[in-house]
Specification:
Keywords: ATP-binding, Membrane, Nucleotide-binding, Transmembrane, Transmembrane helix. Helices cover about 60% and strands about 0% of the residues. The chain is mainly alpha-helical. The longest helix is centred in the last third of the chain and has 32 residues.
């Protein structure tokens, strides 16, 4: 397995998933083998994520008045990336909807609505 290119990718490449283009091209031309797939990036390894959560849980135990809350520890650990990409997804879907319904081709609008509903 090869090292994941997402580890060395810049923000724009991560944002538009440009880093995965070679794998997609290869998968389009031939059946992918296990050796073609990238290793899990170091920041997404279970050990790394569990250590982050454990640190946040330890903080929660110290800071909690009464019972510590796992949800608070999870939020402190993972909320920002989820919120950031959730906002990006919201704007992407909003742009898609605006583009579909502002199209001059009125006959195609039911088709776009059908596609939109199937993706949700």
């Amino acid at each position: 397995m090869q090292k994941s290119p997402v580890e060395d990718a810049n923000f724009l490449s991560k944002f538009v998933f440009w880093w995965i283009s070679p794998l997609l091209r290869k998968g389009f031309t031939k059946k992918l083998e296990l050796s073609d797939v990238y290793k899990v990036p170091s920041f997404d390894l279970a050990d790394t994520l569990s250590e982050r959560l454990e640190r946040e849980w330890d903080k929660e135990v110290v800071l909690a008045k009464g019972r510590p809350r796992l949800l608070k520890a999870l939020a402190r650990c993972f909320f920002l990336p989820f919120a950031f990409f959730g906002v990006l997804l919201y704007f992407g879907v909003s742009l898609f909807i605006c583009r579909c319904f502002s199209s001059p081709y009125i006959l195609y609008k039911p088709y776009f609505l059908c596609v939109l509903l199937q993706t949700i």
